[in-house]
Design a protein that fits this description.
By secondary structure, the protein is mainly alpha-helical. The chain has helices at 2-27, 37-64, 69-100, 105-115, 117-132, 146-169, 174-184.
């Protein structure tokens, strides 16, 4: 029964929760950069102000308890709350940057990643599969602490480079094109008219 609950939570509730948060942020014009700068600043400050202290407390408690399994399980109680808070903090920081410097080189490069969000999600999942599982390099558990941030930075470099390269040649990301073609029930134009 517990496995069924965990499966439903991770497959259904996480997805629905993320979609509802995304819909609320879109309707309130946060994701379209039309909200006041203060909104993004508050997202960043509140998200980090709630999530980072919880993460620090959890980490401190785990280290002092020598990574006790019971304590790890207890931390799952507030894991989702911390994760959403830090995620909103990250989102607030990125959107505040894009709102403040819309014509910057970095904002343009990040916009390409957003235009291919579904394709990038799938690509990052495949990369994770190939890097961390035995289907690929089998490096799960080999990176700790600071080294995980280097892996995340490498992911971002790959996603930004790939997205910008792809969108110079095509109108949509591959997954976005498929989704749009299925939605409109007709094959949508894929390549840019000028080509490269």
């Amino acid at each position: 029964m517990l496995l069924i609950f965990v499966g439903l939570k991770s497959l259904l509730l996480d997805s629905i929760g993320a979609m509802l948060i995304g819909m609320a942020l879109l309707r309130s014009k946060v994701l379209t950069l039309e909200a006041p700068r203060l909104t993004y600043l508050l997202m960043m400050l509140c998200g980090y102000g709630i999530g980072v202290p919880i993460a620090a407390w959890e980490t401190y408690a785990l280290i002092n308890a020598d990574f006790d399994a019971v304590l790890k399980a207890r931390n799952l109680i507030h894991y989702d709350f911390r994760r959403v808070a830090v995620g909103l903090g990250h989102l607030g920081a990125i959107l505040l940057f894009c709102r403040s410097f819309p014509a910057s080189w970095l904002a343009a490069k990040l916009a390409a990643v957003g235009r291919m969000a579904l394709s990038n999600y799938l690509l990052q999942s495949v990369l994770g599969l190939l890097i961390f599982t035995t289907l690929g390099l089998g490096l799960y558990g080999q990176f700790t602490g600071f080294y995980l941030y280097m892996v995340v930075a490498a992911y971002w470099v790959v996603l930004i480079a790939f997205s910008n390269w792809w969108l110079r040649r095509f109108r949509f990301g591959p997954a976005e094109w498929l989704w749009k073609s299925l939605t409109y029930k007709s094959r949508q134009p894929f390549r840019k008219a000028t080509g490269v």
